[in-house]
Amino acid sequence: MTFKTQFSLYTILFLFVFVGCKSAKTIVANGELNNRLTAKQLIKQTEKVESDFKTLVGKMKIEYIEKNKSEGTTVSLRIEKDKTIWMSKLGLVKALITPTRVAFYNKLDNTYFDGDFTYLSNLLGTELDFQKVQNMLLGQSMFSLNDKDYEIDIFDKSYQLKPKKQRDLFELFLMFNPSHFKMDSQQIAQPKERRILQIDYLSYQKVDNLTLPSETKIFAIENEDQLVINLELKSVDLNEDLRFPFSIPSGYKKIEL
Length: 257
Description:
Helix content: 10-25%
Oligomer: single chain
Order of helices and strands: HHEHEEEEEEHHEEEEEEEE
């Protein structure tokens, strides 16, 4: 399995993310770090700023870089919180993620994939579900936070949470911004497989009193191969009535991952 094929589902997932709107205001992250803050206090702050909306619709500019080759595109995205993540590129490529399903099809080569989170879970070495993916896209920890399991320290300009005891399959590091307590970075490392997934949240915006990511860089590294995805917000509207049309055309060839 090639690197590009192996990370193709990551690409699909990350195409949906990091929202704002035309009237959004960029947040200047200049908060001061408090070296007395406890893990319990930090986790409570992150819970207060969790994104609360019904639906989201917008467009996203995406740059995909691999082996010094760059491709760019713009996609339409729709999210119904806790239920559906949907993406379409001119109706030619569509993807759908629900709590029980991960699917996409491509009219350019008449192929499709229709499955669940098993493949992604095996790839990360931990159980992955819709809630974890959604949290990741909204600048929130993809892992449940319990102050009994995590310890806090200061790393550069961020608060860092890490498990008191790292798991055997992967190491986890979560960096939080002291200004708004959303994430600066999520890092999952699998040293034995020489694999790293890192999501850096470069900037945030204020949208209808919500703090949401606006610029994001994703690194997927395996051995000597590296995939980089840059995301740039173009526009979004919140809490509209939306449809999520998705039907795999007949006669398409299933992709086996």
